[in-house]
Amino acid sequence: MLRQWLRHRMPSQETLRQHRVLALFGERLLDPDYWCCNRHSAAVAVAAGLFAAWMPLPMHTLVAIGLAVLFRGYLPLAIAMVWVNNPLTLAPMFYFAYQLGARLLNTPELVFSGSFEQEALAMAVPLLTGALLMGLNCALLGWIVTRLGWRWKVQLAWKLRREKRSQR
To answer: What integer best gives the mean pLDDT of the chain?
Structure first.
């Protein structure tokens, strides 16, 4: 069902070829393997998208595309998973990442009183540490859940097929 929904909403290859930002990936982006959903490519795409969503960088989608291309993931799903990080979840995610990084690095709580540049630099290391750890954990968890969910779906289909045959 997800495949049909995505297939109808995906831009054509010609549209992607003409997009100036995506030209960074060249013709490699148009390889059919990146547009075919299977157990491996879906799990990689979920992991790539979740990892990119936690990174406090601009252009999360390009990071997810790069990771999906590197590890041969399903591009539409990788792009969709980046939107876990949206305007509603951005502040809580990065606040949690900062708190986690500050606790891991044993840094004191920041009190904003000086210049913004100094405070931003002091906040960057704990934020990046927490975001990297959360990105890796969420990517691993997403990969595992996708693989197990896919396997469960296949086993359920086999079970239903067996039951249907036994009813004949």
So the answer is: 86
pTM score of the predicted model: 0.83
* Planar angle of CA 98, 56, 34, nearest 5 degrees: 135
CB 33 within 8 A of CB 126: no
* Alpha helices in the chain, H assignment, sequence order: 2-9, 13-18, 39-54, 60-71, 75-82, 90-105, 116-166
Tokens 């630099």 label which residue? 121
What's the total number of domains in the chain? 1
- Domain residues for the domain of 9 are 2-166
Long-range contacts from 32-37, C-beta under 8 angstroms, 24+ separation: 33/72, 34/68, 34/69, 34/72, 34/73, 34/74, 34/75, 35/10, 35/74, 35/75, 35/76, 36/74, 37/2, 37/3, 37/6, 37/74, 37/77
Reported confidence tier of residue 1, pLDDT bands at 50, 70, 90: low
Give per-residue pLDDT as tens, 128-150.
Answer: 999 999 999 999 999 999 999 99
